[in-house]
TrEMBL record:
Its cofactor is [4Fe-4S] cluster. The keyword Iron applies. This is Endonuclease III. It comes from Azospirillum melinis. GO terms for molecular function: endonuclease activity.
Amino acid sequence: MFELRDRGYATPFQQLVASLISARTRDETSLEVAERLFAVADTPAAMAALPEERLVQLLHGATFPEPKARDIRALSRRIVEEQDGEVPDTPDGLMRFHGVGPKIAALTLAVGFGIPALAVDIHVHRIVNRWGYVQARNPEKTMAALLAVLPKRYWVEINERLVPFGKWVCTGERPRCSTCPLLPMCARVGVTESR
């Protein structure tokens, strides 16, 4: 979402839709699909006007394009009809849309609105637990633990920083501990083999 923002797709609506596209889809693919979609429709009204078949075509490459097309079209219509075209700026308001959970809501708030919100994906979950900063069994519990200990000023930044770090250095399997600049402060919880 941060790279998409940096490419000029920073409205709350664009961030909400792009976050939905990104669910279980590689970042590189999500970026390509979102840019292709926004070239055709980048507002709630324009998105709601697209036929579902066309939306599915535009989402080609993302995982589960049919259900995502239904969800994007439905939330676009609701934003137009129930919200006067404005994306809700609260977690509860966002999570009333089908397909929007805590992570997507947090990304929309943080990146689209600039509101401090904590988005915990698998990378953030793995890394902060590996460091020993928190101890939690899943991303939802990690989010709750981080909300209690992480200063609010880092809530947006942690996702932006740790996602690429988790992809390239602190990987799920065989992390690159030998070249990690954070090795001295890392508890290496659960690391049995590294590079």
